[in-house]
Amino acid sequence: MSSIASTSSTTDAAAALAALASAKTASGTTAAADDPQAKFLKLLVAQLKNQDPLNPVDNAQMTSQMAQISTVTGIDKLNTTLQTMAASFNASQALQASSMIGRSVLVPGSELQLQNGVALGGASLSQPVDKLVVSIVDASAQVLHKVDLGPQAAGVVNFQWDGVTDTGVTAAPGSYTFKVEAVQGGNKIDAVALTLGLVTGVTQGTKGTMLNVSGMAPVAVSDVKQVM
């Protein structure tokens, strides 16, 4: 008798679930082909319809399956919410980045442009140093000018070169490179060379918001160390 009663109840459950699945498909609120709940309901209905009448699906097992689909649905909704938040953040970041168009920025790089008797560059220090030396190099790897900037605090340090070499000759306008050397307590400290570039535009892609900087590959907003 208990088996017959149990079978009757699960049959009723199957009918109810089938009706729910049909209503969910007909509602048009979600694409049935992509809706995890609709897929789960179809599978559960099929399981109930094809169960062994003498060994019906256990209620605890059915409850466990329902809990699992609820968890999956919750995670799916959370992912959708996070994607929406990420899209909103990217749009906000792009809007803020657009304010840098037409301005110069310092970003990681070792190029130095000498124009109208001036070249600007910088260095990023992770800690204070006793000594910071900048060496400006030409295309043939010859050091044209070396300057000791002395002790510096942690952060971004700017420098300017007037184009005059250590031999007193004025270098020709154009592109040069430079390297930075930092020392603290007699030990070399990592220092990141920073090059100056003009922001000409902003783009959004798979890597997030990127700045179009003249003469460089696209630069991530997070790589900007200083806006000038």
How does the SSE layout of this entry go?
Layout: H1 2-27, H2 36-49, H3 59-97, E1 104-108, E2 111-114, E3 119-125, E4 131-137, E5 143-148, E6 155-161, E7 174-184, E8 187-189, E9 191-205, E10 208-213, E11 219-220, E12 226-227
Antiparallel strand pairs: 1-9, 1-12, 2-7, 3-6, 3-9, 4-5, 4-7, 7-8, 9-10, 10-11
Helix pairs in contact: 1-2, 2-3
Describe what you observe in this structure:
- With 228 residues, this protein is an alpha+beta fold.
- The chain has two domains: 2-98, no CATH class; 102-227, Immunoglobulin-like (Sandwich), CATH 2.60.40.
- It is 35% helix and 33% strand.
- It is built from three helices and twelve strands; from the N terminus they run H-H-H-E-E-E-E-E-E-E-E-E-E-E-E.
- The chain has helices at residues 2-27, 36-49, 59-97; strands at residues 104-108, 111-114, 119-125, 131-137, 143-148, 155-161, 174-184, 187-189, 191-205, 208-213, 219-220, 226-227.
- Strands 1, 3, 6, 9, 10, 11 and 12 form a seven-stranded antiparallel sheet that branches. Strands 2, 4, 5, 7 and 8 form a five-stranded antiparallel sheet that branches.
- The protein is elongated and about 100 Å long.
